[in-house]
Design goal:
2 domains; ABC_peri_PhnD-like; 12 helices; 6-stranded mixed beta sheet; alpha/beta; D-Maltodextrin-Binding Protein, domain 2
Length: 297
Amino acid sequence: MLNFKNFLLSLSILFSIFSSPVFSNPKVLKVGAIPDQNQDVLDKRLNLFSKELSKQLNVEVKYIPVINYVAAVTGFRTKDLDLVWFGGLSGVQARLQTPNSVVLAQRDIDKEFKSVFIVNKNLEINSISNIKGLKKLKNLRFTFGSENSTSGRLMPEYFLNQAGVEIKHFKGKKAGFSGSHDATIALVNSGAFDAGALNKQVWENNLKNNTKRTSNLELFWITPEYVDYHWVAQGDLDNKFGEGFTKQLKSVILNLDINQKSHKQILDMFNAKRFVNAEAKQYKNIEDIGRKLNKIR
């Protein structure tokens, strides 16, 4: 009975959220993002970004948090979200499910993005210099981030496979899925897992700002480069907000200037110096790898 009551409560909460004035008002630009790290970080980042968009575009902009990567893709597909900060894989998934959606921009770092593999210091495993060394991770307790993360799952698994390592080779013939990059750090640092893979930017931020959280960790390997995060917009924003709106929106994002204090705050939160133009064709390799690993069908 208790579970049934909880189920009904969950339904009522979801109904109240998606039937709220924010979702029913077509004049509100609804912004979302994959929950790839600590929610406090995401809230601050996306609220600052939304405030700047609202100021420059003269429309109401609302940041809508989501519970996981799938919810971000689903919210975009159902048009409950107009503009979403996706990773490489989740962006491809969303665009394939949403006709006429548009890639607007990526950060200056996203053309050459990297993941890192980390290990718990107690293992006393030396770092490696090439991909073949990933075989050292066999028979260890290993965790990825979210199942649909590009930098925390897709590309790390791809590189593992290139080295002849499959999920079945980890201890228990399975891998963990922490849900976010921050959680991966916490789990490996605590010893709950021996090793893990995550976004290089999140790793470096934690090394700099959260030394206690990384005190039991060692960098094991840095991956080759690949393309990752990007802003994706619905294809009908001009119909909702007026002709030329999508072009205006893109211009605002691309013209965020690190020399302006308010813009610098936003760019710093995104670990970027600027946003640059991006195109869907840049993510073809991510799509191909996603299909190969059965993350896209």
